[in-house]
Design a protein that fits this description.
Length: 326
């Protein structure tokens, strides 16, 4: 079954156009947004249907389509970890907020790339291919497994276990045993960020930036999102970093967090919160290449089922600050 990348409608196999919104199916690399108003365009458009500006379609083989695809940093097969010094911040937006205290931790400089994921897992599940693009179509369980395998590869203690087992690759993703997973936050291995850690880092930690987006109040400075992405992911670290040196915290792909999702975050003072003990869906943060500006803000929250996959959903990783550092 195909899924329309624009409206999400499930389509019959071999569909050429979505019967719900008319958007073409497949060949995503030849689609783009209007440079004037951001309207989504197809390969057959000569003029923008919203503002009338002439359209120049960028084809997959054109060098011009890749002129923004050079990362500003060197990317290795193992993710580079950035120290996020601990501190206090007000998590949330408006009246729904909480005073959070966090100890220091490390966070990966960019969302995990397709090269980094393939190096550990031996496969690349992504639909929007590119070695320096973020990996996507990874469910929550697979992100957890990646963390443990990378920890083993680096000689570190895995954070995650189910019934004492740390090799989680043999557990079926639909199995109820995943409800028994525990995270050892004192281990020196890799893990997903908690929701509080993600938001603290997106808000630039103790720098406490007041920006709507991570690193800027101008979304185009820091994020690939629905109006500038040309309907695809982009190589990581091609936009501006935030004050901590973290790239793509907003846009490109949304990112899995450890916590179960609740519609309203708990109020009051909290120290190193890890989220609810039970739940059905897990938090995802940051917005993606197909989302609107609101969904890419540092405070916007949503959730997905742990077995859910999407070309707009990836992850980045953390480590607790313990004696062993990278």
């Amino acid at each position: 079954m195909e899924k329309c990348i624009k409206c999400g409608k499930i389509l019959p196999e071999e569909s050429k156009f979505c019967f719900n919104c008319g958007f073409p199916v497949g060949a995503l690399e030849v689609l783009r947004s209007c440079i004037e108003c951001g309207n989504t365009l197809s390969t057959v458009d000569k003029f923008c249907s919203r503002c009338g500006v002439p359209v120049k379609v960028i084809k997959g083989g054109d060098e011009s389509s890749e002129n923004d695809e050079t990362p500003k940093i060197r990317l290795d097969k193992k993710p580079r970890m950035i120290l996020v010094p601990g501190g206090q911040f007000v998590m949330g937006n408006g009246s729904n907020n909480s005073l959070i205290t966090l100890v220091s931790y490390y966070m990966s400089e960019v969302p995990i790339t397709q090269t980094q994921y393939s190096y550990v897992m031996g496969k690349n599940p992504s639909k929007l291919l590119g070695s320096d693009r973020p990996v996507e179509c990874v469910n929550w369980c697979e992100a957890i497994i990646y963390c443990n395998i990378l920890s083993f590869m680096c000689g570190l203690t895995p954070c995650y276990s189910i019934g004492g087992a740390t090799d989680l690759s043999g557990f079926d993703f639909t199995s109820p045993v995943w409800k028994r997973i525990v995270c050892n936050f004192t281990a020196d291995g890799f893990r997903l960020p908690t929701e509080a850690e993600w938001e603290f880092a997106a808000r630039e930690g103790k720098n406490m930036g007041m920006n709507l987006y991570s690193g800027s109040s101008n979304i185009n400075d820091v994020a690939w999102y629905g109006e500038n992405s040309a309907i695809k992911t982009h190589a990581v670290a091609t936009k501006k970093a935030n004050a901590l040196g973290l790239y793509d915290m907003c846009g490109n792909v949304a990112e899995w967090c450890w916590d179960y999702y609740t519609q309203i975050i708990p109020t009051g003072n909290q120290t190193n919160p890890h989220g609810p003990n039970i739940g059905e869906v897990h938090v995802k943060r940051g917005g993606s290449w197909l989302d609107d500006p609101q969904q890419c803000t540092v405070y916007y929250r949503s959730g997905s089922a742990p077995i859910g996959k999407s070309s707009s959903l990836g992850f980045r990783i953390c480590r607790s600050q313990v004696s062993v550092t990278m």
